[in-house]
Design brief:
The complex is a heterodimer of chains A (about 475) and B (about 475).
Chain A lengths: L30 H4 L17 H13 L21 H7 L2 H4 L11 H18 L3 E3 L5 H18 L7 E5 L5 H8 L3 E5 L9 H7 L4 E7 L11 H10 L3 E6 L18 E4 L19 E3 L11 E5 L2 E5 L16 H37 L15 E4 L1 H4 L5 H10 L6 E2 L8 E4 L7 H20 L18 H6 L8
Parallel strand pairs in A: 2-3, 2-4, 4-5, 5-6
Antiparallel strand pairs in A: 1-7, 6-7, 8-9, 10-12, 11-12
Chain B lengths: L9 H11 L29 H12 L9 E2 L12 H7 L2 H4 L11 H18 L3 E2 L6 H16 L3 E5 L4 H11 L5 E5 L16 H7 L4 E8 L9 H10 L3 E6 L17 E5 L15 E5 L12 E5 L5 E5 L6 H4 L12 H39 L3 E3 L8 E6 L3 H9 L3 E2 L2 E2 L11 E4 L6 H17 L5
Helix pairs in contact in B: 3-11, 5-11, 6-7, 11-13
Classes of the chains: A alpha/beta (about 475), B alpha/beta (about 475).
The structure holds pyridoxal-5'-phosphate (PLP).
């Protein structure tokens, strides 16, 4: 096996090219004359000089050093790594849809605007909301947009004392980070012994300085907040709004809806629940839905349909403005649109039911060998704790690294922060029972080895292109770019 | 319900339900209060097969006029450049596009190394010390840069050139609305002050506005009108009061123009869609973010760094994570989690294929072709000059008739015309922003010019 793949720069040969451009067929401009003074570059950027073959080989080799959903099981909790249907990729690269300029006359983009308009309708129905904006590029940006709407709503009512946003201690890091960016003070509330929002703690915090509550449901322990209706009533009664982090919508499509739970704003991650691929880190799409009262605050433009003609409405005086250029990650939205159109309501519901069954099946079959802090019926994911194994010196990290050698992408580890040695397992509905069984057997085997021969688990991974990497060194003496 | 994406059979389902010790699928959801459980189906269209979906999408596509069937002279923030075929072949490899963020570096060296290469290329182009792994788009990159600057020097005012892309300014205003940071605009030189109609930032006005409260000045070069700003002069002005300079630069233009880093910018941000990414009706785009070394540990988003493995071999990891939301929560430099990694991969592929010579050639052709178009239009006297300073790829003219009337007429000739500046810049009423990339041939340009001329001659006079 070739272990080290050179950087593309290290493969550069002076004078070699990898491009094919049309010949310049217009008069040439004398650059020195047109751009006097300091305008022109004195030294060329150090870009690689390589052929097309070099580039293809290089990135093909790099791709082999990477693991995707098509490579195998990817139970990365909170990330919903379901299979990405291939037809959706084909649709997203259809020239008639993708090769469109965002500022074209709407009259020439009726097809794309119709897709966006209908996507708003479908997601509104799935979330139980009045309207959806597709502008946010990811979940975090959806959160930020929603929080700005909360702020705008209170300001519009001249209620400027509402400065606090409540988030549970089990929430994802983007929740408090987004709240801070929207100008709020962040207040954390603890979870109770059942892993849900501590109602008494909530009661204590609620007053007229609270702007809203952000809640992930099912929460990051994979549990449905049983007191959800009580929570939403309590927050509303004190004048706050409710924000629903819908990263975990894959548990409840067609089964329950944030709007019906009393939530005012909810985001979904199209790159999780709606099967769009994650691209090695992005792009995603994080649309948010809002209740009727908040529609005036949505970012511009809002797509409207007037007599079968789709228009972009920018004339919305209460709008929070724009959070991103243009209309959102259209290419991602196209894939999710295709997914919804191929699944239909029954298909989406079956996806959620199966995702939940799969998670419970794994939970049930690991509960004797691993600690499961809140061991009851879970939603689409659950969190186990490797504390029992850690007593023998085998941490969640060690277990994760051993899974790599077995050809499996490890679960999310050390999140949520409220569980020691957390391993968050989300199988999704697209995995077969055989795949689950294989994973279960490997996890059981690791638990037994952790008991009998913990040392044997400390040096994984051995089968990968690189072994454990020195992250401390990377952060202490950062090398963030190549230099000749 | 059977679905090709759900492998579980009916029998397997029964067996698994019994392992879990529940009688039905419904029982799995018993934690959800009864009154919340939907009693009816969601109102969604009936499911389509693959074949039906394709047909449906084709029907929708036919309601569009795309930039393949129509010749595009529209820019204004998204650009129609040539994309080498190889790019799509690389980004279509499942190991890249179906992977998550590289949390497990041992099986993510492909994405990590490609980001490291991308960071290097962006740093090279911009003349900066480091770049991050990507942000959502140029507009949000500018917003993040403004936040960084204000936190760095504790000042609460951003001065921004009015010649910066209006979309970017809007995103900046919305983002900063509740942050306590205010934004002031600085005008550009235009016709009214007859001695200077360069279209660049008004340096006297900048002097008037700047103070010890200024956290940063933000300019764009080439600016929204395609005109090159004097980055160096603005940088001097910023340095005098200890403000930072944020430069929004087009990455293709940096194939020929001096880098913002060399001209004194502290932060360079912008839109890297032109590097191998289709316009996609405005998204996904690709925000790049690059800084000089004092600001590295304050950057938003993911950063990849080089390190070694336990056997001393070179490898790459996500690094400097103590800045990020999953560790810092409300104290993080940014809330960004998912970014635009696959678009950054496309940009790295593009820059590898183009290389040193190719990028310069693309930039040079953009110049030659836009200058040729500009002069051809002026020669026929149906449009007049608006600004005087040199431009890149895009220019402003004032046609004899209203831009939207020309655009409407051009559409019937299968041409997507330029951007009407009237709405965003009332002071430039009737002005038209035309973009010409390397993709346009002389024939397409000549055709465009002659159509514009005849439309103007036969059309309504602009009053
Ligand atoms: C619970 C939860 N909330 C929010 C987010 C943020 O979403 P994104 O990465 O799309 O910004 C995530 C993603 O990891 C998540 O798991």
């Amino acid at each position: 096996m070739i272990r080290d793949e050179k950087l593309i720069f290290e493969k550069s040969v002076e004078g070699r090219i990898g491009y094919s451009l049309p010949a310049n067929d217009v008069p040439e401009v004398d650059l020195e004359v047109v751009y006097p003074g300091d305008m022109l570059r004195k030294t060329a950027p150090q870009l690689p000089e390589v052929s097309e073959v070099d580039v293809i080989r290089h990135y093909t080799n790099l791709s082999k050093r990477n693991y995707g959903v098509d490579s195998g099981f990817y139970p990365l909790g909170s990330c919903t790594m379901k299979y990405n249907p291939k037809i959706n990729e084909d649709i997203a690269s259809m020239e008639g849809l993708a090769q469109m300029h965002p500022l074209q006359n709407p009259q020439t983009a009726q097809g794309n605007l119709e897709i966006l308009y209908n996507m708003d309708k479908y997601l509104s129905e799935i979330l139980g909301m009045e309207r959806v904006t597709l502008q946010p590029a990811a979940g975090a940006q959806g959160e930020m947009t929603g929080l700005m709407i909360i702020k705008a709503y209170h300001m519009h009512r001249l209620d400027s004392k509402r400065v606090k946003i409540i988030v549970p201690d089990s929430s994802h890091g983007t929740n408090p980070a987004s709240a801070a960016l929207a100008g709020f003070e962040v207040v954390h509330i603890p979870s109770d012994e059942r892993g849900c929002v501590d109602i008494n703690a909530l009661e204590d915090i609620l007053d007229d300085t609270v702007a809203g509550l952000m809640l992930t449901n099912p929460n990051t322990l994979g549990l449905f907040e049983e007191d959800i209706l009580k929570i939403s009533r309590m927050v509303h009664d004190c004048g706050g709004l409710l924000y629903y982090d819908g990263a975990n919508m894959n548990a409840i499509m067609g089964i329950a809806r944030p709007g019906d739970m009393g939530f005012d704003i909810a985001h979904v991650n199209l790159h999780k629940t709606f099967s769009t691929p994650h691209g090695g880190g992005g792009p995603g799409s994080g649309p948010i839905g809002v209740v009727k009262e908040l529609v005036p605050f949505l970012p511009v433009p809002v797509i409207e349909k007037v007599d079968d003609y789709y228009t972009l409405d920018y004339d919305r005086p209460l709008s929070i403005g724009k959070v991103k250029s243009f209309y959102g990650n259209f290419g991602v939205i196209l894939r999710a649109y295709s997914y919804i159109r191929t699944m239909g309501s029954q298909g989406l519901k079956a996806a959620s039911q199966t995702a939940v069954l799969n998670a419970n099946y794994i939970r049930k079959r690991l509960e004797d060998l691993y600690d499961i802090p809140h061991n009851r019926i879970c939603m689409h994911e659950f969190v186990l704790s490797a504390q029992r194994q850690a007593k023998n010196g085998v941490t969640a990290l060690d277990i994760a690294k051993n899974l790599l050698d077995k050809g499996i992408h490890p679960p999310t580890i050390y999140f949520p922060l409220i569980v020691q040695e957390a391993m968050m397992i989300e199988p999704t509905e697209t995995e077969s029972p055989e795949t689950l069984d294989n994973f279960i057997e490997i996890m059981r085997d690791l638990a037994i080895k952790a008991q009998e021969n913990p040392e044997s688990l400390k040096n994984a991974p051995k089968e990968t292109y690189v072994s454990r990497l020195d992250e401390v060194k990377a952060a202490r003496t950062p090398v963030l770019r190549w230099k000749k | 319900m059977k679905s090709s994406y759900i492998p579980m059979t009916r029998q397997q389902q029964e067996a698994m339900l019994s392992t879990v010790d529940v009688k039905s699928l419904d029982e799995l959801f018993s934690a959800i209060p009864e009154e919340l459980r939907l009693q009816k189906d969601l109102k969604l269209p009936e499911p389509l097969s693959e074949h039906e979906l394709k047909k449906h999408m084709n029907t929708l596509a036919q309601k569009n006029s795309d930039t393949i069937g129509n010749t595009c002279f529209l820019g204004a923030g998204a650009y129609d450049h040539i994309i080498p075929s190889a790019v799509k072949h690389i980004t279509s490899r499942q190991e890249f596009y179906t992977a998550y963020t590289p949390y497990q570096p041992e099986i993510s060296q492909g994405v990590l190394q490609s980001i490291f290469e991308y960071q290097t290329m962006i740093a090279e182009l911009t003349g900066m010390d480091a770049a991050n792994a990507s942000l959502y788009d140029g507009a949000t990159a500018l917003y993040e840069a403004a936040l960084l600057a204000s936190r760095y020097n504790g000042r609460k005012e951003i001065l921004i050139a009015r010649s910066v892309n209006p979309e970017y300014r809007k995103v900046l205003y919305s983002g900063l609305r509740y942050s306590g940071i205010t934004v002031k605009e600085v005008d550009f030189y235009k016709e009214e002050n007859s001695n200077n109609k360069s279209g660049t930032i008004n340096l006297e006005q900048l002097q008037d506005h700047i103070s010890k409260n200024t956290a940063a000045i933000a300019i764009q070069s080439p600016n929204f009108f395609g005109i090159l700003e004097d980055i160096k002069a603005v940088s001097h002005t910023a340095k005098e009061v200890g403000a930072l300079l944020i430069a929004v630069c087009d990455p293709i233009s940096l194939g020929v123009f001096e880098s913002p880093g060399a001209l004194g910018a502290d932060i360079a941000v912008g839109e890297a869609q032109p590097l191998g990414n289709p316009m996609n009706f405005g998204g996904p785009l690709l925000g790049y973010f690059a800084v000089k070394s004092p600001f590295i540990r304050r950057m938003p988003g993911r950063i990849v760094g080089e390190t070694i493995d336990s056997q001393g071999r070179r490898g790459f990891v996500l690094t400097l994570q103590a800045r990020e939301q999953h560790i810092r929560r409300e104290k993080a430099t940014s809330n960004i989690c998912t970014n635009q990694a696959l678009c950054a991969l496309a940009a790295a592929n593009y820059l590898s294929l183009m290389g040193k010579e190719g990028l310069k050639e693309v930039a040079t052709q953009c110049i030659n072709k836009s200058v040729y178009t500009y002069h051809s239009l002026l020669e026929a006297s149906q449009v007049s000059q608006v600004f005087e300073a040199p431009f890149f790829r895009e220019f402003v003219v004032r046609p004899k008739i209203k831009p939207n009337a020309i655009n409407e007429a051009l559409l019937t000739e299968k041409i997507i015309g330029g951007y009407d500046l009237t709405a965003e810049y009332p002071e430039l009423e009737g002005c038209w922003l035309v973009a010409v990339t390397e993709k346009r041939s002389k024939k397409e340009i000549d055709d465009f010019v002659s159509k514009v001329n005849s439309i103007c001659q036969g059309g309504i006079i602009n009053d």
